[in-house]
Amino acid sequence: MTRSAVAVAAQVTPAAVSQFERGDARPIPQTLLRLADALDFPVGFFVVSAVPSSRGTAPDADDDQGFFRSLRSITVTDRRRAIALAHLFHDLADRLGQAVRLPDRDVPHLGVQPDADPATAEARADEVRAAWNIAPGPIPNVVREMESHGIVCARYHAGTHDVDAFSVPFADRPVAILGDDKAKCDRERFSAAHELGHLVMHDIRDAGSKAVEDQANCFAAAFLMPAGDIRAELPATASWGELVTLKKRWGSSIGALLRRARTLDVMPEATYLQALRYMSGRGWRIDEPGDLGAGEAPQLLSLAASAAEQAGLTIGALTSQIGWPEPMVIEALSASTDPRPRISL
Question: Which residues constitute the domain of residue 122?
Answer without folding.
Answer: 56-224+299-335
